[in-house]
Design brief:
Number of domains: 1
Distance between the termini: 18 Å
CATH architecture: 3-Layer(aba) Sandwich
CATH superfamily: P-loop containing nucleotide triphosphate hydrolases
CATH topology: Rossmann fold
Order of helices and strands: EHEHEHEHHEHEE
Strand content: 15-25%
Radius of gyration: 15 Å
Low-confidence stretches: none
CATH class: Alpha Beta
Largest sheet: 7 strands, mixed
Mean pLDDT: 93
Length: 174
């Protein structure tokens, strides 16, 4: 676990729980220069449409950065005072790392070491995947395990942690 605390905010919840909307409001309320780091990949037409719709909904006040793999490098490149950065979402990043056969533990360590050094206001969004049944196949179990470990690491270093259910935020830390 990281030893130092960051100013980051971690927003966790299930699919369609309202976590992204809540995270966007946290960024909008800062009045800072808004940056959105999207980790999702458009594997098919439906996903391309979703990405386009989300980008249109955010509007021109956001600068969007698409980064499926090298998340920490992208965050370091756009880091700076006067900026607020939303990362959506960490579980898609985990999927991308696994599919690219990257060293997941090493990537997690680099990210959690960066967070306390960041100058920008960071809000990180992720899907909670550990509340259901044990997945039936090895890859799904590995994904769940990786996501759970990452969530613990991010929560440990974050200044604030929220769990979102039915659009309602529950503040868990900070």
């Amino acid at each position: 676990m990281p030893s130092s605390q960051s100013r980051a905010v971690f927003v966790l919840g299930g699919a369609r729980s309202g976590k992204s909307r809540f995270a966007e409001s946290l960024i909008s309320d800062t009045g800072l220069d808004r940056h959105y780091v999207a980790t999702g990949r458009a594997w098919d037409d439906e996903m391309r449409e979703r990405i386009a719709q989300h980008r249109n909904e955010r509007g021109d006040l956001w600068t969007t950065h698409e980064e499926p793999l090298d998340l920490t490098a992208r965050l370091a490149a756009i880091d700076g005072d006067g900026r607020a950065v939303l990362v959506d979402c960490l579980t898609l990043w985990v999927t991308n790392l696994m599919m690219a056969e990257r060293n997941v533990a090493a990537e997690f360590a680099v990210l959690t070491e960066f967070l306390p050094k960041a100058k920008a206001r960071l809000v990180l969004v992720s899907n909670e995947v550990g509340l259901g049944i044990v997945p039936e196949n090895r890859m799904a179990r590995e994904f769940r395990d990786h996501a759970g470990r990452l969530h613990q690491m991010i929560a440990a270093t974050s200044a604030e942690v929220y769990f979102i259910a039915a659009g309602l935020p529950l503040k868990m830390k900070g």
